[in-house]
Structures are given as structure tokens and as C-alpha cells.
Specification:
5-stranded antiparallel sheet; single chain; disordered N terminus; 206 residues; 47% helix; 2 domains
Length: 206
């Protein structure tokens, strides 16, 4: 079969010209580039295609791995320190029993690097938020537990008969109200205790 005279069904003839066919999509911080070339079913390039160095490496990888061109859809390949999505599409050849395959690949290295950068940023952000959350939890726990410990000690002293008021100052109104109530009770119980002791003292003297 004379490949130079091969006609592909519904396929632009300029694909087989001696020039590279490529296009690129630019999105902000990353660039997605794509190229195409045409293979026959035995992994040979059709026509006099001029393909880039990356296209050559992908072509050789497909041939070495003996990849089924009928089933190659969105296959990720790592070539020359880059990542590429590679797909192939069947193109029947007129007047022959041969088959051709359009192979298209997209360089997603920039996109993957951008994704890794975002993932690292999100990981650092989560770690920072976790550290801040621990600090806030520790701070607020101390803010709450210290007044409770002081009030518990005051209540325990009252239970043991020590009615000495404690002049605690709390920022929270609820703790301050409870402190005032306990001190008031301590004073009243102290007065009652002194009166009781004075009564029994006078009783024994009589």
C-alpha cells in the first residue's frame, strides 16, 4: 500500500502535511497544550507527519507497551517529566483493509502542578486552623475552669466551716453573681455560727 496516496474517511488532508498540528488552551496560571498524530494499526506513522519530541516519545511509549488503540481513552502517561492524557480514535481508510487511528494528547503537567499547589495550600490552611482551634480551646477552657475551681474551693471551705468571704473578681456576670451569692451565704452562716457559739458559751457559763 502506498501510504502517501492513502485517503482517510472524513479526515482533513492537512493532518498528514509536513508540519505539526497543535493547539493550546490558556487558563490563568496554567497552560494545557495538545498535539495529534495518526498511526496505522501496526503503530506506524501515516504519511510524512512531522511530530514534536514529546509526540515522538508518546508514540514510542504506545508502541513499546503495545497499547490497544481501539480502547485507549483518557490514558495518563508520564513522559519526559510531564503528565499527559492520551486518547485514540478509529479512522477507517477508504479502498483498503487497513485502519488508522487519530491519537491526541494533552499536556496536563501545569494543571497537575497547579492542583498540587492548591492542595498544599489547603493542607497548610487546615493545619493552621487546627492549631488555632487547639489554642482557642485551651484558652477558653482556662477562662472557664479557673473561676469554677475558685468557686468550688469557696463552697468547699463553707462546707468545712470556714465562712471567710473571698473577694474574687470575675469578668463573666454569671460567675460574679455566683461568687456574690456564695460570699453572702458565707457571711450569713458566719454570723449564725458566731451567734451559736456565743449562745453555747453563755449556756455553759451558767
Amino acid at each position: 500500500m502506498e501510504i502517501a496516496e492513502t485517503i482517510l474517511l472524513g479526515f482533513p488532508g492537512e493532518i498528514l502535511d509536513e508540519r505539526a498540528v497543535s493547539f493550546a488552551l490558556r487558563r490563568n496560571e496554567f497552560r494545557i497544550e495538545s498535539n495529534i498524530f495518526v498511526l496505522d494499526e501496526t503503530y506506524n506513522l501515516l504519511g510524512n507527519q512531522f511530530i514534536s519530541e514529546i509526540s515522538t516519545e508518546i508514540f514510542q511509549a504506545i508502541k513499546e507497551e503495545n497499547i490497544n488503540l481501539d480502547e485507549m481513552q483518557n490514558r495518563m502517561m508520564h513522559i519526559a517529566d510531564g503528565a499527559y492524557y492520551v486518547s485514540s480514535f478509529h479512522l477507517p481508510i477508504i479502498h483498503t483493509n487497513e485502519n488508522a487511528y487519530l491519537v491526541i494528547y494533552a499536556d496536563i503537567t501545569g494543571l497537575l502542578n497547579f492542583t498540587r499547589t492548591i492542595n498544599r495550600f489547603l493542607t497548610l490552611l487546615v493545619c493552621a486552623m487546627f492549631i488555632v482551634a487547639i489554642f482557642l480551646a485551651f484558652f477558653f477552657s482556662n477562662t472557664i475552669t479557673q473561676p469554677i475551681q475558685k468557686l468550688c474551693m469557696l463552697a468547699s471551705n463553707i462546707g468545712r466551716g470556714d465562712f471567710t468571704p473571698k473577694d474574687y473578681k470575675f469578668k463573666d456576670k454569671e460567675f460574679e453573681d455566683l461568687n456574690m451569692a456564695l460570699n453572702k451565704s458565707a457571711r450569713q452562716l458566719g454570723i449564725y455560727d458566731n451567734g451559736k457559739n456565743h449562745f453555747f458559751k453563755m449556756y455553759h457559763m451558767n
